[in-house]
Amino acid sequence: MSNRRQFLQTSLMAATALALPRGAAAGGIDAKTATSNGARVVSTWDFGVGANQAAWPVLAKGGSALDAVETGARWAEGDLCNSTVGRCGYPDRDGVVTLDASIMDGDGRCGAVAALQDIVHPVSVARRVMERTPHVMLVGEGAQQFALQQGFVKEQLRTKEAEQAWREWLKKSEYKPQINAERAAVKPGNKENHDTLGILALDASGKLAGACTTSGMAWKLHGRVGDSPIIGAGLYIDNEVGAATASGVGEEMIRNAASFLVVELMRQGRTPMDACREAIERVVRKRPVASKTLQVCFLALNKHGEVGAFALHKGFVYAVCDAGKCDALLESRSVYTGKPA
Ligand code: ASP
């Protein structure tokens, strides 16, 4: 993925040519297109295609949704072209790369790390927090200490490219989250200054899991934590209902406990897409002026394998993988218009 924009265009064309399953054009996928063994994995953004491709073999072999989402998230964290997740993530305003991640299964087991430095795979540290401690979240130095005790290795994460971008940013030092579509139109080839890999999976035994991993908002204040490691904000999973994850300016997800909200709306009978739409409407109702200049996106998968997405502004794409077909990249054509659904 050397040129994200080009990749995106190619993949979108491919997705169109694939004769999308019913519901896809409206921003969702229904259960009828279900999969060979009932498994499905969905991920945010174009890099979600690679994450899904990494996760799929786990599901295809009858592995757990939890193992699948961790595998997919680790792929994204190691991706050398991604300026918003893992190894190559952009730093904060002080030039420090800090990573946030969470993981959750449908039985309510969860773990998270926030503001973690010098460790490439925060999602795996989050899983260790879940499985080997009585806690849900570790932050900063404590999270790193725990990771090292668990055998993770310290690595310098600020790449040359990230360093250059940071030095460039320092010239104006203006904190301005980009709306992806505007960014691509204005400056093709420019790198994203925020995004998250949110990955949700349904396994052959009907269990759900999800993970979220990000370097957060580039040029954030040192110590800032976004929604991705906060259970209920960037990620929420319930085997009785479904799974939801988010990307975009995390403060908005935190204000609205948004991924929890999406799952609760599905519990009340909403489709994944409608639940995501209602969550976007809440964001806008709370901050109508601010929401004009920032991006917020939701992706949901219910226990029947139905998928839905909704974004505040255009440009949100998500990847869907099932029955071994892992190249589908769909654009959420459903964006907030201010008109009733
Ligand atoms: N939600 C992430 C954060 O606020 C960034 C993103 O997904 O765009 O840290």
Structural features, described:
With 341 residues, this protein is of the alpha+beta class. The protein has one domain (2-330): Glutamine Phosphoribosylpyrophosphate, subunit 1, domain 1. The chain has ten helices and 13 strands. Residues 1-27 and 30-35 have low confidence and may be disordered. Helix 4 (122-132) links the parallel strand 4 (110-116) and strand 5. It is 33% helix and 21% strand. It has an eight-stranded mixed beta sheet with strand order 5-4-3-7-6-2-12-13. It has helices spanning 4-17, 47-60, 65-78, 122-132, 140-149, 160-170, 180-186, 250-255, 258-267, 272-286, and strands at 28-29, 40-44, 99-105, 110-116, 137-139, 197-202, 208-214, 235-238, 242-248, 296-302, 307-311, 317-322, 325-331. Aspartic acid (ASP) binds at residues 194-196, 214, 216-217, 226-228, 247-250. Aspartic acid binds next to strand 9.
Short description:
With 341 residues, this protein is of the alpha+beta class. The protein is built from ten helices and 13 strands. It has a single domain (2-330), classed as (Glycosyl)asparaginase (Glutamine Phosphoribosylpyrophosphate, subunit 1, domain 1, 4-Layer Sandwich).
